[in-house]
Write the structure tokens for this entry.
Amino acid sequence: MSLRDDAERVLKEWSGPSGDAEQEALRLAYLDHLQSRPDGMWKACRDGHVTASALVVDPAGGRVLLTLHRKLGMWLQMGGHCEPEDATLAEAALREAREESGIAAGLTLLPGGPVRLDRHHTPCAWHLDVQYAALAPAGAEGAISDESLDLRWFGYDEVASVADASVVRLVERVRALL
């Protein structure tokens, strides 16, 4: 199964938050995008492309790890473009979480698949982001990557003071699932 096939499978099976019409509309738009664009998974697709991200969470500490994105200058979850070696969206999200958090071992995705979808414009194109949650092992310490200006743990209630509404919604959704 190709990464594209996996993305279509994930999006067809994903039910999203109950009664959330916006999330359902995004799910259908992502599927339409993939069905109409053979290159819809890749950065080269200027009409937009599917990306994978993961919010790194320390449930015991009641905190999340955010990166100050070098190019965007915003506090965000870990994530980005899918790569040819990614077999699944989940693997892409976990790879991005490891690379950008510096937590090389012990990260595991919250069971149940993606937690949210978020469509946002970036300098390269529209990102059709499939968002997961990655649980950090106890005592995990991050390390700043080349893609980041800073990396910091924030208490759940601190996120709204540093991040945009999309990250706040992601944190709220993950908290509801924990």
In short: The first strand starts at residue 49 and ends at 58. The mean pLDDT is 94. The beta strands are 49-58, 63-69, 75-76, 78-81, 108-109, 116-121, 126-135, 148-155.
